[in-house]
Amino acid sequence: MTTTAETSFDIKTSPIQSFASLQHARSEIYENRQAFERFKNSVVALPTSGDEGRRRGLGFWMSGDYTQAVETLKAFPDDNVASFTLARALMALNRPGEALPIFERLSKSYPDEPKPRAGGLEARLEMDLEKGDEQAAIERLAHGIEHAPNSFRESAEGQYMQGRLAELRHDTETAVEHYDAARELDPTHRANLFRLAYCAERTAQDEIALEAYQTLVRMLPIDRNTLMNLGVLYEDMGRDQEAAACFDTIARSFPTDRKIRLFLEDAKSAMNMYYDEDMERKEDRLNQILRIPITDFELSVRARNCLNKMNIMTLGDLVRQTEAELLSYKNFGETSLNEIKDILASKGLRLGMAREEAVASIEQNRRKYATGENSELLNKPISDLELSIRARRTVESLGCLTLGDVIQHSEEELLGMPNFGVTSLQELKGKLGDIGLKLKTKAP
User: Fold this and answer.
1) Which of 148, 156, 221, 368 has the fewest CB atoms within 10 Å, i.e. the most exposed one?
2) Residue 243: half-sphere exposure toward Cβ, Cα within 13 Å
3) Do residues 421 and 415 touch, judged by C-beta distance below 8 A?
4) CA 73 to CA 154: how far, in whole Å?
5) How many domains does the chain have?
6) Helix or strand or coil: residue 412?
7) Residues 354, 198: Cα–Cα separation, whole Å
8) Cβ neighbours of 40 (radius 10 Å)
9) Residue 9 to residues 20, 33, 34, 35: CA-CA distances in angstroms?
10) pLDDT tens-digit map of 205-229
């Protein structure tokens, strides 16, 4: 039986009066594989000129063929829906420099419409980040938001861009507030939901992250990175069966992807393990090292931006990459690779590791610092220090289980952690000094 959802939108005849209507209709073509194939065939069969040519280009965007969408929609510069769709396709292809003038023209034509203004700000932001000039990116974005109309700042698009700015300033909690406000205004804003989920996860607001990822997964078409991140979050929450379902879905769509196979095998293995409460607590602390955000380490702007564009956000994301995968990315060279290898080596890690192997390596690295004549002292739990909540949470977030783990870290590393200041540092140093221990000295 043919469902209404499969036939309610016809690329040949249905009215397409705005980009929003295009987005709304897009989910219908992904109801099932047959509907999607029928839609693609209809698009390809359309003539290349006139209104049918325009519809052909819009159809390519709807089916995710952004290269064909760009080539087709370039022929319709006077059609604003086609132009905006062209700019969005260019952004999807990581070509912000070509998208920017289109967004700027549309923004001048529609000064009260937030979408083209936000598109221009985001295109300029990506261009600055591509150049490795993070400070210029922050200043330009802040200036653009400040000089935008109040109606823009209060819109979903404006809240989203303010979230991007807060994230650039490493104020993740404020970023979550803006992204959450944007979600209230527009619960279908995909990019905003993804950033909300990512930042919420990094600030230990797992329920918010889970809700945002689950919302994205229900919005067709499903993005691969979203499904991957949801799987990892399920895995971290101990919901291994749901994690395996996410990874299995990706694996069936990308059967040659070696990395997703590793994720799937990890999740399946965890499903078969018996539960041991003490081991679970220990495993969780070790896994916290793998959850440390890349932004917590001193990387060059170029390396950090490349990792961000590759959706590599944590040490756990990073260790699963191979050298070849990193070097194959645009602007990622040997210098950036060596920076990363040094960071991983400091944690007893290397590139190309599965999660279980990485956890085992972290534990082995931890133990080598807790042997010898002070082994009894170094193996004492961090609870023996009786730290304040803020200081204790920081050392726990670094994956520290024992006093030996704590003294592997330097003052500079601790001060670089969110919400850990000089007061917490002095407290920690004092507690360690009382028992004859001190933090690691940073190499000159």
Assistant:
1) 368
2) 23
3) yes
4) 31
5) 4
6) helix
7) 22
8) 18
9) 14, 16, 15, 11
10) 888 989 999 888 887 677 778 888 8
Q: Considering 181, 205, 221, which residue would you say is the last residue of a domain?
A: 221
- Both 338 and 375 in one domain: the answer is no
- Name the one residue in this structure whose structure tokens are 């249905």: 14
Distances (CA, A) of 219 to 106, 190, 373, 405: 27, 8, 58, 43
Cβ atoms within 10 Å, residue 82: 24
Give the tokens for residue 299: 């990387």
- Phi, psi angles (nearest 5°) of residue 440: -65, 140
Each residue of 9-34: pLDDT tens digit?
888 888 887 787 777 777 777 766 77
The answer to whether the pTM exceeds 0.70 is: no
- What CA–CA distance (Å, rounded) separates 310 from 308? 5
Tokens of 363: 């534990």
Residue range of the domain that includes 330: 286-367
Query: Cα separation of 406 and 61, whole Å?
Result: 51
* Domain identity same for 173 and 253: no
Please report which helix (H) or strand (E) contains residue 184, including its range: helix 172-185
